[in-house]
Amino acid sequence: MERDEIIIRKAIVHILDSTIGMPVLSDHLLELGPDLNDFLRGHIFKIASSDDMKSCNFNQEESFVYQCIQDFREEDLIRVSQEIAKYLYTILNQNIDITPGDLFIVTYQYGSTLYLAFLKMNYKESYIHYASTDEEGNYNDIIKQKVTLPSDSTKLSEAVLINLSDYSVKLVEKKYEINGVKTNYLSEIFLQCQTKLSPKAKLNIITKAVEQIQEKYYEDDFDKHMEVKAIIHQEYMEQGAINVESIREKIFGEQNEIKEEFTEKLEKYNLHTEEVKPQNKQTTKKFEKQYLTTDTGIEINIPMDQYNDKNNVEFITNPDGTISVLIKNISKITTK
Q: Which GO terms describe its cellular component (predicted)?
């Protein structure tokens, strides 16, 4: 998805501050000037391109939100958004641990497809200056603002993107304590939909399974640890995805018992045949370098392309069992 290809069509904002006892619902759409357009477009792009984003399918018979939008028309945005905002406010008001905020409901277009976005912008505290003048002169003060909205550089922690052609849902969410249990209220209570793991969560589970196998069978084999990381990096660079079956064969080869143990760890999450396609470079950044620390406290970071080139770096096992790292063909060294 390209940011500039997101077209903001209509938007409205409702104030869901649970401290004032009732929602403040707008009866008018927002005037979409260039700054507000960029603000909304930026937040939608961050969500759509995030590897924290989860897929979700409505329980169509039970979901109040689905009932509101199943025959959605843009000319009904004010009425529909008010119903949805009131419903969300009821949930917030019944669960005081959920952070209050302003709810932006936006229709936008990407390509020929129309989408509906719910952007919950949670309040945060900030400080502003305040200037006043009286008979004795000017007085400057600092005031705490408790209902400041997130800046355009902030990634929202709670948002929903709905494809209005097929009612598929993408969302980011956070857990809050509800009746003593940490709950994804946005998907489970508000939307009433079934979520799938995000690409980031899937990749974390896969790499954790790899690490557990390494610790059990290759604890002191640093060569194997580096080899595994290089295999995962190469898989992503060549395929644009990380295929579990492919890396299992490349990492564990003919070691069938270890492969079976690795598969069993991922079967718990139904990821044993998964192909993960991260969108954000930050998600795979940890595979771009080999990070080494010696028992003497020396730290070495080696870019993966340099690690794979034996003309640039070599690991030598000495007769006494110690290891030497040989860095070759250096023409210049800088310090930081």
A: nucleoid
